């Protein structure tokens, strides 16, 4: 019997019905579909790009690589970062092979890696846009070029693919890329004292370092973080020196430096400003490097960003980005629901950030937010059929408004087949395919169970944990721990913030009352077997926002367990704004196996106004026309499942007597 | 004793304290100030143009004319329609000379007319932008050129200036312009089968016709109205034929044809679409021509537009234009308060439209809307000191939001010194200077008194009317009619919609009870003297919107008489959204002589929530943190007077228990 000093998680097999449906969808629908799209073989309609920069009706992503590899002739098409669609797909493939081995798919991926190797230059450089269209401008337009962002995504894919398949070639390409970047960037004479306009390389280099233990990759990531914003004129000087002729991405010249988190050194940045996806990718990189180097300044920075985002700038669904202009954060408590952005990629990025923070310290809030993103903000990015996607995730939508008011035209009310800027579909795919990596975090001799997703997990020392539940619909979570070597370790279970007032815990069928410490209860394990049963509070909750959020005043969001609900027009009588939840409203939960692949639905007591007539005056006195309420119900479905039926209004926040 | 057949209104002298303060401001501050701005002699800060097309930090409007007249050398600066600032100023000068003769000012104006004459080409053409920068493109870019719009504004100014001063030269320039346009436009061979992208010439030609009785001007106006939208490809064909190189006004190529009301013939247009100012200028032209020609199709069109705007698309303050994109209408009942546009010019244009409709038929609603615009939507465009202006008039504003959320950056919370696109300052000036023309409308032997603005009016047959009141603060309106010839005529008084449930009318000190017919009561006059006393309902009213307006649900606007009120942060504790007017709230009115040049203020019983702390959770359950109301009051001021003190929040719509 020994105390474990450094437990290792070996593998996790997901047994959750909820998640396995999505994970099978990734294998059966999403990956083949995305592959055909990237090969321009799918018969699809590409949505007007939210950034209105789409230049192609095809993806052309594989063709760009083939052109560079001299397999075909032609021009680059798509965004400068078009390659990343391929890399994120490859990363998702890697994760899928772990739970669903597939020789055909592996063969396609291996061949793709061969193609990528052929496209890579001798010095390691790879960005098809610059190789095809502007080889003389490599690394000379970093504000808009996305070159390091692009290679970062390949490095992430390669790390994943190597870990699953052992494909050395894939890893070598990544090493060559990282070496190329290392040779070109830094404060040493002759190197570029800069960084990419879009953070990503920092987290990618950290992952490469974790795999290879090659210190220079970590040093390079550290350099990029420290150098960012040191010289606010760096980007524009580069462009001036190279001679400005046109934006690589239309309109980007007008964005402020804060859009790129490059207005000042990151240690000086007090709030999360600018493009939300850039912010969370940057934060993930900061958290990685802070953990791997122990740098306290960086740790302070990532906690500061975390707190600003989570406590002041996040929607109740976990979505972030309050404006379509620059897909950006705006200011504290500014959370409009019908003009917001809430990009899928930003929510996916928040899961990366949360996961890293959990690896730094066992704080339940990181698990809370990770859960919020997994079950709401990220998941809404993909349709139930796996072939349609949201880029923007509003909390309030109305097809009439999206069509009729240009300030809401970025809000689609039906998921699109694909996007000109297709960052989101592959991002959500790689998240779902790797969700097994988001359930446990190990700190020395402590195993943290922070996500309630049924699984069978194996740790070293022959420790195994079987987690069983029907989450998110049911709050009964059971763990069977096998510990044949009778190792001593702590098992921490997150008590979600939505359940902290009311939960029940049993160890070996006996009630226990343990203190909640930073969101976790800790159980000391030393016997060879242990049964833990946790019963969470699955009451329906009416959530209100801090009243500094103007847009949510007098409204509630309805939540049950981790699931945030919404009302859709088709389940109610439009317009949704005429409903009001009564002061002492009762709400009833019902699992409906036949609706939207099986969902928990909620009905809430409400009252509703008769819709005024078009012949009624536009304005009249309250006394002339008093409010005319009658009894009704509001029918709600999970937010992640909205927009899977006919087009119509949707709203998360619902009027409530207050 | 005879029945009048066609009464004529000779002149109106305003005695209203409220309006005379503004009218003296026009003379003493606004006109000299605007003259110095247009001559680039004012030390001002020009606000970022709402359309972001400002190319100059100076107005340069007079300089452009001097360049064309070969007085100085240089390039054109400003918008293609920069000349109109001068013309609208000249028109305001004309009106001012009627109530405030000023030889110095008249001399300046006469000299300006000399300059304009020198700038005009032999054929009558005058548009300094094209004359200086692109003479080969005259009339070849009508979608964006504003040439007829520009000349239309001169024609309006000339008609007014000639009527007041008899300056023949001014009128001859206008005639030559109209002849030039007549020579170039029409369906005859060799003429341009088109029209201007910005309606205005139609109403200007109608005014010129009314003065000169030259039928061809009316025919030309009729042609423009009938031809508009007949060939939806006309504009783009013109540009293609001329060879496209760049937009005259950046971004305009992206606007749909509906922006220009050119997507289809106007008789087919069902709703008010596109740029709000264009719509109301067009409507004014349609109403003019419908009246002057008796064309029933045009009459139907202008009534249809009227109803759509007033009954579905107008803010409670009279402002119109629900989106900054294209400064446009959106769709029925879409009236967001904090992202809206509500351009000052659009409200001014509505007064033109309403006045024309009143000349067509004695319908009280036209007078109601005219009053709404005069006392609210238009008047808010100018500061109390006459030197600061709103282009955009929001119903809800917050400096933090304007600064921090790009979707609200078009909303200024302080009036600007001037604008790159300076259409609004001179438009509101010419309206105020001519408000004497908006009080009475004569139909044959009927005099309609539709605006309550103290005045002394003289009609032919020696009929005179002295209207006395302290409106808008007091609802007692008295008329002394002198009719020494004992002519028989009807005197119609508008009973405003806000007073139709409760008003008192006395004729010669005796109560009378007359039917309200389409918003008017009619008194038959035949004696040599008559005293009429009307007492209007000045109760404070809580106004609600039709509940199809999502953004106003659960809110009220507070109105007293014609004045719509708003809450400003400085009179209350911020944030304003934490207040709620109680169900049976009492409201008290108090005239404060010392505030904002003298205004009626209102205090309403309300309750207010304690502002949540920044340390409070962003989201929590309602049961964890119930609403914490305490008694309070809301202090309100007239909407037109907002933004004249320190920067802060403002809101017209206020939460109300509902």
From TrEMBL, chains A, B:
One of its GO terms (biological process) is carbohydrate metabolic process. It comes from the Bacteria. It holds the Pfam family Glyco_hydro127C. The keyword Chloroplast does not apply. Its EC number is 3.2.1.185. Residues 540-655 form the Non-reducing end beta-L-arabinofuranosidase-like GH127 C-terminal domain. It is an enzyme of class 3 (hydrolase). Gene3D superfamilies: 1.50.10.10. GO terms for molecular function: beta-L-arabinofuranosidase activity. Coiled coil: none annotated. InterPro entries: 6-hairpin_glycosidase_sf (IPR008928), 6hp_glycosidase-like_sf (IPR012341), Beta-AFase-like (IPR049174), Beta-AFase-like_GH127_C (IPR049049), Beta-AFase-like_GH127_cat (IPR012878), Beta-AFase-like_GH127_middle (IPR049046). Residues 11-436 form the Non-reducing end beta-L-arabinofuranosidase-like GH127 catalytic domain. Keywords: Glycosidase, Hydrolase. Residues 446-538 form the Non-reducing end beta-L-arabinofuranosidase-like GH127 middle domain. PANTHER family: DUF1680 DOMAIN PROTEIN (AFU_ORTHOLOGUE AFUA_1G08910). This is Non-reducing end beta-L-arabinofuranosidase. It comes from Clostridium ljungdahlii (strain ATCC 55383 / DSM 13528 / PETC).
């Amino acid at each position: 019997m020994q105390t474990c000093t450094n437990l290792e998680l070996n593998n996790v097999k997901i047994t959750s019905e909820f998640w396995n449906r999505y994970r099978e969808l990734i294998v059966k629908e999403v990956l083949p579909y995305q592959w055909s799209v990237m090969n321009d073989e799918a018969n699809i309609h590409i949505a007007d790009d939210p950034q209105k920069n789409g230049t192609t009706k095809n993806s052309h992503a594989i063709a760009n690589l083939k052109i560079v590899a001299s397999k075909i002739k032609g021009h680059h098409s798509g965004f400068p970062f078009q390659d990343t669609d391929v890399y994120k797909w490859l990363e998702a493939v890697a994760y899928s092979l772990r739970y669903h081995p597939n020789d055909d798919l592996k063969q396609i991926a291996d061949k793709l890696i061969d193609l990528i190797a052929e496209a890579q230059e001798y010095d390691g450089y790879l960005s098809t846009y610059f190789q095809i269209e502007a080889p003389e401008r490599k690394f000379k337009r970093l504000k808009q070029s996305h070159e390091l962002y692009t290679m970062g995504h390949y490095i992430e894919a390669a790390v994943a693919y190597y870990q699953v398949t052992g494909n050395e070639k894939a890893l070598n390409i990544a090493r060559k890329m990282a070496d190329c970047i290392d040779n070109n960037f830094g404060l040493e004479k002759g190197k570029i004292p800069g960084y990419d306009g879009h953070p990503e390389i920092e987290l990618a280099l950290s992952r490469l370092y974790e795999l290879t233990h090659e210190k220079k990759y970590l040093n390079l990531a550290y350099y990029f973080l420290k150098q960012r914003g040191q010289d606010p004129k760096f980007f524009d000087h580069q462009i001036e020196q190279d001679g400005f002729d046109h934006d690589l991405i239309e309109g980007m010249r007008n964005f402020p430096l804060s859009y790129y988190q490059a207005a000042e050194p990151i240690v000086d940045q007090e709030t999360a400003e600018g493009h939300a996806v850039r912010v969370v990718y940057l934060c993930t990189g900061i958290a990685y490097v802070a953990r791997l180097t122990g740098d306290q300044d960086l740790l302070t920075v990532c906690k500061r960003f975390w707190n600003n985002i989570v406590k002041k700038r996040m929607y109740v669904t976990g979505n972030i980005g309050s404006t379509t202009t620059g897909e950006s954060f705006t200011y504290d408590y500014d959370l409009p629901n019908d003009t917001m952005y809430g990009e899928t990629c930003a929510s996916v990025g928040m899961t990366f950030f949360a996961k890293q923070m959990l690896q730094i310290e066992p704080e339940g809030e990181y698990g809370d937010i990770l859960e919020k993103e997994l079950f709401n903000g990220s998941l809404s990015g993909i349709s139930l059929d796996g072939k349609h996607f949201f880029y923007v995730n509003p909390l309030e939508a109305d097809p009439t408004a999206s069509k009729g008011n240009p300030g809401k035209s970025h809000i689609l009310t039906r998921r699109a087949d694909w996007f000109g800027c297709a960052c989101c579909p592959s991002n959500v795919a790689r998240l779902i395919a790797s969700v097994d990596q988001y359930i446990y975090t190990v700190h020395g001799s402590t195993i943290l169970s922070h996500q309630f997703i049924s699984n069978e997990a194996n740790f070293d020392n022959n420790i195994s944990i079987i987690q069983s539940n029907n989450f998110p619909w049911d709050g009964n979570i059971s763990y069977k721990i096998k510990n044949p070597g009778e190792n001593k370790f702590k098992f921490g279970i997150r008590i979600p913030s939505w359940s902290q007032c009311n939960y029940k815990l049993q160890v070996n069928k006996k009630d226990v009352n343990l203190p909640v410490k930073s969101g976790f209860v800790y159980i000391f394990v030393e016997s060879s077997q242990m049964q833990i049963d946790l019963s969470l509070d699955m009451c329906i909750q009416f959530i209100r926002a801090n009243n500094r959020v103007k847009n949510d005043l007098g409204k509630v969001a309805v939540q049950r367990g981790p699931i945030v609900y919404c009302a859709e027009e088709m389940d109610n009588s439009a317009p949704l704004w005429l409903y009001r939840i009564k002061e002492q409203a009762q709400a009833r939960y019902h699992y409906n196996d036949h609706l939207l692949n099986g969902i928990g639905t909620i009905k809430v007591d409400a009252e509703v106004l008769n819709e005024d007539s078009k012949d009624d005056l536009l304005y009249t006195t309250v006394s002339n026309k008093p409010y005319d309420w009658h009894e009704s119900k509001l029918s709600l479905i999970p937010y992640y499942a909205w927009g899977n039926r006919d087009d119509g209004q949707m709203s998360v926040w619902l009027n409530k007597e207050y």
